[in-house]
Structure formats: C-alpha cells, structure tokens
Amino acid sequence: MRPKESFTLETEELSNHVLTVEDPQGVRNFLLDSVTYSLGRGMGNSIILRSNLVSREHATLLVIAAKKSSCFFRIIDGRLDYKRSTNGILINGRRRFSHVLSHGDEIIFSKDTRATYQVISVIANTPKINSSQNNISERLNLTTSHQTFDETESFELYPLQSIPDQNLSVYIREIINQFISSPELNPQPIIELNLIGKILYLNPAALGQFPNLEEMRINHPLLQELLEQIIPLVNPIRKTFMREVMIRDKVFEEIIHFMPSNEVIRIHIFDVTKQRQAAAIISYQIDHDVLTGLPNRKYLHEHLIEIIEKLEDKKQRFAVLFLDIDRFKLINNSLGHSVGDLLLKAVSDRLKTLLKQGDLIVRWGADEFAIVAKDINSIGAVVQIAEAMIQSLTAPFDCGGHEIHITTCIGASIYPDHNIDVEALIQNADMAMYKAKSEGQNSFQFYVPNMQEQSFQRLSMENNLRRAIENDELLIYYQPQIDLITGVIVGLEALLRWKHVSLGSVSPSKFIPLAEETGLIMVIGAWVLRQACLQAVAWQKMGFPPIQIGVNLSVKQLQQKSFLSSLNQILEETNIDPHFLELEITEGIMMDNIEEKIVLLNEFRKMGIRLSIDDFGTGYSSLGYLRDLPIDTLKIDRIFIEHLAHNKHDQNIVASIVNLSHSLNLIVIAEGAETKEQVDVLRSLGCDQIQGYFFYKPLPADEIEILLRSQGITKPNIN
Ligand code: C2E
Ligand code: MG
Ligand code: MG
Known about the structure:
Helix content is 34%, strand content 26%. The chain is an alpha+beta fold. It folds into four domains: 6-131, Sandwich (Tumour Suppressor Smad4), CATH 2.60.200.20; 155-277, Beta-Lactamase (2-Layer Sandwich); 288-448, Alpha-Beta Plaits (2-Layer Sandwich); 466-710, TIM Barrel, CATH 3.20.20. Helix 14 packs parallel to helix 16. The termini are far apart. The protein binds ligand C2E and magnesium ion (2 copies). One magnesium ion binds at residues 493, 552, 584, 614.
C-alpha cells in the first residue's frame, strides 16, 4: 500500500535519502521521497521485505522536517499505532523501537533481511530537481555509469538512483554505493574531467572550496598542465600519479587517476598545507640550532655537498673555517649558562656581519662555529677572513650586564687543496683549529697534511697519560742545585718522569703541555707536589740536613681557584716546613690577571714558601715586573748558557740578569750548564748557583739519597 498522501518532498532540499534493501530476493534501492513508508512482508507495504522471517508490518519510516532545506527519516518498530513487529529491529546492532536515521545506518529486520540508509547531498548548483519532469529516477539510465556521459551534457548531471521495487544487479549497486558514499560525502574535493579538459563532475567539497573551478576550468591552478602530464597515463602501464599544486599560501596534493574504460580523469585533492608547514618546521629544527638560529652541522654537510656538486669549474676554491672560543667553559661555569648563551648569540651575530653573500656560518657544537667562505682566490684571502673574525671578536661583549673579553682560535681547510671530501674537509679544519689552540690565544692555523697523524698521536697520548696516573707510571727525579762558592748541594728540583710500558720514558716537554691542555695537570701537579714534599720530609727524617725542594708549577694550576687550599692541605698532610719548598713559576704567569697573581704569590710567601722564576729570559719581555713579584730566585734559561763560553752577547745578557737579580736581592741559578767553561764564565759573572749536567743530571730518589749521604765527604769538584 503506497501511502495515501503520496506527495513528493520539496526538492529545494540539498539531500536525498536512499534506502538499500537486501533480502532473499536481492538488493533494491529506494529513493525516499515520500513522507511515510511502511516496511514488511505484507503485499500492502510501500517497501516489501521479501522474507518469511520478517513481520507483515515490520517497521515504519516517517519523515521529520529539519531546517528549511533538509529533513530526516525516523524508523519506528511496527506500525504507527504502536503495534510492534514480532522480532523487532536492530539499528547498527542495537535494538531500537524508534530511531532517527543517519547516513550509513544499518537496519536489521531479520537474519536474512537488512537495509542501509544513505543520505546523498545534491550539489548546490544542480538544476532544481522537480519531481515530475526532472525526477531523479528518470535520470537513472543516463547516469548509472560514467561511460554513458555525453560530452554535450551538462556536468551537473550525476547519478542518483531510485528504482522502487526493482532489482539492480550487484554491479550497479556497487557503483551506486561507491558513488553515494565516496565522492558526494567526501570532505576532500574530487574533480572529474575528460581528456579534452572538460569538467564532468565536481563533488560538493570541490565546489565549496574552489568556486571558480567551473569558470576557469582547465586554467584553474588545480588543473593547469594536467592534460600534458596525463598523456603518459593513457599508456596502460601507469594509471595513477601524484602532484603538488601551490595556490597562494596553500599546498594541495593531487592524486590523479586515469580511468581508461571511460577516459575519465579523476582527481582527489588534499589540502596538505598544515603537513607541509609542519614538515618545514621539523626540517628547520633538524638542521638549525635553537639558541643561535644558525644552521647546524647536518646543514653544513648538506651545504658542502651541494656546493661541490654545483662547482662548475672544479678548480674553484672555498674554505671551511672552524672557530672556537677559548675558555668558554670557564665563562659558562663562572657567569652561568644564561650569560654563556648570550655570549654565543652575540658572537654568532658579530660573525654574521663579516660574511659575504653566499657564505655560511654554522653552529658546529657548544662554542664552535664553522664558516664556509666561497670563491676563495688565494690562501691570503682565507688568512684575511680569519684575522678579521679574530679581530672582530676581541672587542668586549656586553652579556647581561657583564663585560666579557674573549679570545678565539681558527683553523681552516681549503677545497680542493686540502681535500675534496666533505667529511675530510671538516675534519681537517677542526684539526687545524686544535693546532691553532695549542699555539695560543687568537691564533689561526691552516691544515697541514700530517696533522691527522699528529692528532691521532695526541689522542692516544692523552689516553695513555690518563692511565699513567692510575698505573703508577709517573715518578720523580731530582736534579741537584750547587752553590758555586761552597760546592754544596743547596737544593733539588723535582722533575717529573713518565715511564710508559711500551712508549718508554716520555719527556716532560712532550707530556706536560698535553697535561695542561687536557686539564690533567691539576691532578698530576698535585701528585708531584705531594710526592716531593713527602720525599723531602723523608730525607730530613733520615737525618740529612734540611734541603730545599723545587717544584714546577703550571700556570694552569695557578688559575685554579682551589689551588691555594689544595696547597695548604698538602703542606699539612706531608708536614713539610714550607721554608724548604720552592715553587717554580714561569714568566707566562704574568700574561694576564697580573694583580690577582701577585696577591696569590704573596699568599704563598706568607705561608713561608719560596718562589722562583723559571726559564727566565724566554717569556715576558719586560723586566720591570720583577720588582713587583714576591720572588726569591731567578733561574736563567738554558738557551743563554748553551753558547756562553764563546758568545759575548750571551755573556752580556747573563751579566745583566745577574746584576739585576742581585740589585733586587734575588738568588740567580743558571740552568743547563754542561761544561767547565760555562761554569767558569758563570762564576766570573757572579752567578750564585748552577743546575746542570756538568754536576748532576736529574736522578732517582735512591741515587739522591746516596749522594746526600756522601755530601760533605765528597762535594762536587767545583773548580
Ligand atoms: P725546567 O723546570 O726548566 O727543568 C729543567 C730542565 O732542564 C729539565 O728538563 C732538566 O733535565 C733539564 N736540564 C738540566 N740541566 C741540563 C743540562 O745541563 N743540559 C740539558 N740539555 N738539560 C738540562 P726536563 O726534566 O726534561 O723537564 C723539562 C721541563 O718540563 C721542565 O723544565 C719543566 O718546565 C717541565 N716539568 C718537569 N717536571 C714538571 C712538573 O712536575 N710540573 C710542571 N708543571 N712542569 C714540569
Ligand atoms: Mg723548573
Ligand atoms: Mg727551567
């Protein structure tokens, strides 16, 4: 029984409602364009369910008007007069008596009978559907498949099916379902066009998002150059491809599928702007440093590879420079990391101003920057760049109210001179930078070919030295200092020795600088001091007259804040009388923070410790500071003694040093006297003491013991 009031729904609505019924008789689609429907096995129902398992009058569909342009259907179990069906209905697997249907709902009437409810939105500019002459059912034959599209037809025609009480083949049903569920309701725009660029179909999302698609057609940015690209797809091997289109600030990904059966191109469009933006942010973060905003080492690698690939003339040169801030750790530790961060930013800003167009600056690591300088036409140009950088960083930095002075070191390698491999170029520049560091502050150094070997050696040496302390490979030799008038041993200088199992005896001139660079000198220096004091006390306890012990101090040790307290602790522990300890310092101590150092040296003096200036004449040029230093002894460096016997010039220098020292009440010791002639000249010049091979080489403690025992009996022959 068709409903009595069989009026058609006003077609201004934008949605159409389809019920697809599946029962033992097959699949049927019903366009729901009436206000009520009765469903059941009885022949009087408007939708007959052909199964014995359903009730005669199993359910009722009832339209509910929603907004002006839309409506819904409510399904009710049984009849409108509340007479329920025998077995009820399940909506999406749940038993319901009454339910407002929504798209995709599945209604189960019985084990063998079910229906699916679908809502199809009609595109806004579809010609107004009129129930009589433009009935959707009437258009069915035209549109069940794309293959029947006529080029002359308006593209707005699109399939929508309703064939009450008529079976459709499964094939058609699939097409309907595919069409209903995917393009129409798809929130992603879908466009279909043919091979001559005529738009055949736009889904609602396409119309909504790109209103000028219809007007611009193939000239719309979404479709530009598409036909040229599609041609290879007509060849049956490949049917799908993807491309990206930028429209203003948006990025769209198009998945383009060519359907050869009807020669239709279907394009699915995805707005991937957010993904691309996120990807861009992530990729920025991956190859940039957060603090300075500079590119990072990953970027540098890629940049160098790119430069090399692009170099037209392979003989073109570019330089990789590595710049490191000296003592950055100290700044960070003493002023705090936030000040350290400010400094790094300020350094990077200053360096940036020195770059030419096309050059690059990268934050390589904590306080290391890498600079790529392109179009280098001479080695001199690199030197100039490095010097300009070092120079620009010497002006003080104001970081959070702290005035900070820094020094830097730069190493450089040049493409292709030093290598053509990116990795090697970077490594070479880094190595050169380390070399520069060992040369002192504000140094610049080019890579030289055997640096790698040297640095390997340095590395293994460093590891060995670390182990030397644990493995008891360090020991102290003592070299006697002889009074030139009495011939008596008046002092002993403690000289460190390193006996390595396979390296043998390693000279302190090799490992002391390494220990200073690596900071190992703090531990080693303290060890030497303790051992020397213990030894001096031991000798005194053996009954030898107290003898002065000289211990070398590194400038690095003196820079250590805790040095004074650790010195005090050693004196206490070893119980040495500080008057018998002489600390040897070099002129290097006067290089910076002179006032601070003088305060510290005065502290030593107050404790009773004697002080000497070692290797005098090799370092600081001004003699004026000698007056300000609280020292007792001056040790003339061996280079002035070496040629003393025959070199008048050296004799004059030594004479001046002796006179100067005496005028300042200092004792003068000459280092490295090896011959009688040298000793004679030194005596004639008034030198007080001698420490040299002519008398004694540095000796192990047990040999010194023998020597001391014989002291007094066998004084060295000083004449
Ligand atoms: P230095 O303090 O000037 O020590 C004197 C150096 O001259 C010693 O070298 C000694 O063996 C050498 N020498 C003495 N008389 C002669 C001579 O007649 N002819 C020649 N050719 N050489 C002579 P050594 O022991 O190799 O030490 C070298 C340097 O290593 C020392 O120079 C000192 O600066 C440093 N050093 C040694 N031990 C220590 C230590 O415990 N701490 C620190 N910081 N430095 C140390
Ligand atoms: Mg010394
Ligand atoms: Mg010396």
